[in-house]
Each structure stands twice: as C-alpha cells, then as structure tokens.
Amino acid sequence: MKRREQSQTEQLRRALSEREAQLSEAQARLAALEGSTSLQVGRALTSAAKRPGRGLVRLPRDLFRLWRKNGTTAQATGRRRKPDPVRSYETERQEVRLLSGTIGVRDERLAVAGVLSPEAAAAVEPYLRVVPLRPQDAQPVFESVDVDLVLVTASAALAGTGGAWAHTGDPAAADRTRALAWVLEAAAARGVPSVLIADAAAPPALARLPFDLVHQGDLGVPLHRFNPIAAEPERTAEPVLPVPYRPLNAVARRLVAGLGLRTADPHWEDLPGLLRSSAAVVAADGAAADRALACGARALLLGRPADRERGPSVPTDASALHSEAAAEELARLRAAGPLAPDEVRAALRSVFLTDATPVRLAEVLGRLDLAPGSGGAGQPLAGRRTAVLAAPLDDTESLALADDLLKQSHPAAQAVVPEEAARFTGVERLRSFGIPVRAVPVPEGGGTARWAALAREADAPWSALWHGPRGEAHLADLVCAAECSGADAVGEAAVPGGDAVRAVGADQDYVFVGAVRPDLVRTALAARGIDPGLWNRHGARLLALGPDRGAAPGPEQGRAHSAPGTN
C-alpha cells in the first residue's frame, strides 16, 4: 500500500509540474499578446468609441505614437523582427509529458507532431513517438502537446494513399495546405523545428511552405519490416518489379514492357511479404534495392551505376533500348537465385550500419537545432546501445577482449567486468580509448548467476555475452538481428540439455527457435538470472543466428569462457 501511495504521489507531482510548465507558457504568450501593436490599437479604438468627445481628439496622437514605436525596429533592420521562440521547457525536459491527454506515460523517444503516410508512420514508430495531426483538428491538437519536432512526409500528400492529408499542396485542397502552414508557423513561434521528408514528388505549394529543413530522400529501410526473418525456403524464381512511388521514365517503361517483367502493386503492408517470397527483384531506385536485399532477394537496379552492395544495374537512357544488356542481366539474375546465407548477412549488415531508418533519422536530426533536454539527434539510435559483459581470466584474455571491442563496426556502449579484472591491461586499454568500464562484485564460479550479476550493473538495453573474439561484425550482426525480429535473445540454435543448452548447428539462421546459446540478450532478461534453457517458458522470443562463417576465429576463441547455463 505504501508503494502504491508513493506511485500516486509521484504521478501527481509530475502532473503538477506539467501544469506549471503549461501555465508558464500561457503567461509568456499572454505577455506577448498584451504587448502586441494590434491589441494596443484595438484598445485605443475602444477607448475613443466609449468617450467620443475627448477620445476622438486623442486617437490620432495615440495611433501616431504606436506607429512610431512599431516602426523603429522595422526601419533599423529593413524588415519586421521575428518574435523570439516561446518554449515550454528551456532546461531539461525529461519529465513526463502531457501527450494527447495522457498523463504519466514515460517514453524516452523523441515526441513528434507528424503529418505522415501510413507507411512512414509504421517505419518510424519504434524510434519516434508520433502525435498524428489531421487537417480538421491540427490546431487544437498541436496547441495541446509539447513536441520536439514537426515531421512531414511528401508521401502523405499523395492521392493514392487515401490519407487525411492527401492532395495537400494541390489548389483543390487549399484548406489542408492552410492547416499545415498554420502548424509550421506555430512551431516556429515555439522554437520547434520542422522537416519535410521528400520521399515522393512534392506538390509545389507543399515544397514552398517554410520548413526548416527539406531532406531529399526517404526515411531509410525500416528493418523491423523489411528483413529475412522466417522467409519462405522456396521463393518465386521469376523477377518482380514492385510499382514505385516515383513514376519510371519513358525509357525504363519501355524496357520493362520489352522484357516482359512481372509487376506487382501490393498494399504497403504486404510489400515485405512479396520481397521475402521472391528470389529476384527489379528495383526502380536504390531504396527499393536495399529493401529487397534486406529481405534476402537479389536486386537489379534500374537507372543507376552498378553498386557492389546493391547488385547489378542497367542504364535507362536511349542506348539501352538498342542493347541486350538488360536482357542479359535479367537472365543472370534468374540463374543466380536468392541470396546465399552469407550474402544475406552482409547485405543486412550494410543496411543496418548506413541506411536503416534510425540511422537516417539521426542524420536528419543532426542537421536541426533541437530544444535542450529533448534527447539529441542520437536518440533514435538509443535502442541499439549494447553493454558487453565479459569475465577475462588474465591479462592475455583481457587484451583479446580489448582488441575485439575496439575493432567492432558497431561499437560497444560500455563494458562490465568482475572486480578482479578491473586492473587487467586490456581493461585499462578500453578505458583509455573512451569505452566506459564498470567493475562489479560477482559470485564465485560461473554460469547464470555470474552473468546476471554483471547484467544488473549494465545501463544499456542490450547485453552481449563475450565468449571470445568473433570478428569485427559480430556486434553489428547480433543487434541487427534483434532490430529485425524484436527478439529477446539472439544466438546459435540450441536444444535444452539438463540445466544447460547445447548448440546444434547453424543451418537455422533468422528463425525463431525454442532455445539458443545466447550471444545477445535484453539486459532486463539477463539480469533475472533465469537459465537460458527456460527462457522460452517465460515468454521470451529467441532468434537463431550462428557464427559468421566468413569471419576468421580469433586466436583466443575456444578458451574457457563460462556462458550462462554451460559448463
């Protein structure tokens, strides 16, 4: 009962703080309104109307004074000075916000007022907290929430999406354009940046709105949607061309017709399934090629030079119509079949590191001036932070640990080691390179309890259990697999054996299984101290991912490391 009372008291305290912040903002806006020239002119006219005898005599003098006072700044700068931004939080804004009438919800994601297509909203959902705006209630909703950003996608204005903002920027839907313009002006007055993601052809009136930033491109590849998880083992061999957002040019259309390509126009929710069931895809642009590769399909790119990571391409200029290059590339694409397991892993890794949605969001946010306390441009990447739990036995093993972590393509957020390993040379080397290290007391022996003690001191959402060097892409592959699947633990497929788990071979990659030999696990799960062989009984989702066969084992691999539940 006492704990419940404390929780209620905390919620009331947070709600009171929220109300105080809103009151401060309202007072600032009221002060700005009372000092505005329009209000003072209105008061002068009202006063003159109440007392015509004296008021009409004084009215010209009062209006002249207001004009002279208001014109001082305009004459000095040549244009009217914009009002200073009014923000509801000038310092740390980490307390719980009032979003859409919900009090007491703690969410570390950036809060975004969104004018998004359904597909874009699904892409950013794991990384941003979106407050959707609609034309009919954009003003009251935007005034009632505190957000870090206004995010607009050009695809939301497309006619075919059937969304509330379809035709925005078109003269036939001027009311929607005006509603969005009001949101941008209100955001500028509050110091909230606005971004247009030009992921489709934007109508001229939409492109002319006063956005702080226009990003030419899409939101990247949302790996939680486009991935090879549980893909069908038998794929359709005939290449397919998904209908793109941006129309193909005339040469590309003639090429497609001449080659007799199979085209498909699936609903956006069904597109990942189409790619996972196809062995080869003809892609209209680089983004479509990345999505196909992430789903395990080979890609033939139209209209761009060949890219080693995206696969072959064919030109779409006039010379292509008189060449057999397109037909030859298509024949090679048919013969190659779907990507091999090592190719799938390499393609996913490349997208994860450079073109995934959280990476693209961090890139866009890095070009903006976000309010203090919003979390910063790196907030979309916070879910990837990984703590490495390691128990090196001596200096030699600690140096192997340091060499392994310092060369990772996805860097570790921190390392957690037992107290007795705190002064090892390799651990000191990690500190010297800026990797935070925590040394904690752990129980004697090995097994689950030892790893659980280390996990309790980690402050990252993921914990990687270090058994030895596994190559520079090891952490990237593990975190990528977790981001694709939403799994709670990732590791080599295993079968329970008594109170332990035993690895059973690695033909089962990117599929959910009943047990794994864990390499990556949610920190909260690892800290519970449950035997890995029992994780699935507690509702954990376990994804199989064996070692990278293309990575050479390190010299220290195979030494005695005690993994959870193993001897």
What can you see in these coordinates?
The longest helix is centred in the first third of the chain and has 33 residues, at 2-34. It contains 18 helices and 19 strands. The chain has helices at residues 2-34, 37-50, 52-77, 118-124, 138-144, 174-190, 204-207, 250-259, 271-276, 286-294, 325-336, 341-354, 357-365, 395-406, 425-432, 448-455, 474-485, 523-526, and strands spanning 110-115, 128-132, 149-153, 194-198, 213-216, 240-242, 262-264, 280-283, 298-302, 313-314, 386-389, 414-418, 437-440, 462-465, 489-497, 500-503, 511-513, 516-522, 542-544. 37% of the residues lie in helices and 15% in strands. Helix 2 runs antiparallel to helix 3 (52-77) and helix 5 packs parallel to helix 6 (174-190). The strands form 4 sheets. Strands 11, 12, 13, 14, 15, 16, 17, 18 and 19 form a 9-stranded mixed beta sheet that branches. The protein is α/β, with parallel strands linked by helices and 567 residues long.
Radius of gyration: 29 Å
What count of helical segments does DSSP give?
A: 18
Query: Strand fraction band?
Result: 5-15%
The average pLDDT is 81
End-to-end CA span:
44 Å
* Helix content class: 25-40%
Structural class: alpha/beta
Main beta sheet strand tally, sense and closure? 9 strands, mixed
Extended strand count: 19
Estimate the global geometry from the Cα principal axes.
flat
Poorly predicted runs are: 73-104, 552-567
